[in-house]
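Aim 2 progress. For Histidine kinase/HSP90-like ATPase domain-containing protein, the working sequence is reproduced below.
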Amino acid sequence: MADHLEASVTLPSDPASVAAARTYVVGTLTEWGLPADADLSDTVRLIVSELATNAVQHTFGQSPTFTVDLALDRDERLRVGVTDSHPRFPKRLPAAVQQDNGRGMVIIRWLTAECGGRLRVRPTREGGKTVSIELPWTPPGRPAVAEPATAVGGTAGEQKPSR
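Predicted structure tokens for this construct:
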């Protein structure tokens, strides 16, 4: 695979665009070799859904569009960011048990940390913000963690200790 891949889509700040953002991201990751049913694909799909929903709901009509950017560096790190033109940074709100919303950033932080990644929020030059995540990328066919050789039963070409 290439050392660096990028993809981007700009969508209207409309609730229907959340599904379009998810579809775009999963399609791009599939083109880059990640199966659509992989755990990482599911995680990124949920994170993008939350970020896009925030861009639509919490910009109060002051951001007519939002942009989803993806970048894959050296088959090692996947970055996904959602940029809107509203200047207010997301806040972690205390969510009441019965509350239907307000947990998006908590979900994003948890999923990102669970995958060994990080979350960043930074201002744009135009006065908006980008909320992005960076996750480790394990290319298909390469194990995420090298498994130690097992001594029980042995494997082909492995010699068992003599007694």
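The chain has one domain: 4-136. This observation will guide construct design in the next reporting period.
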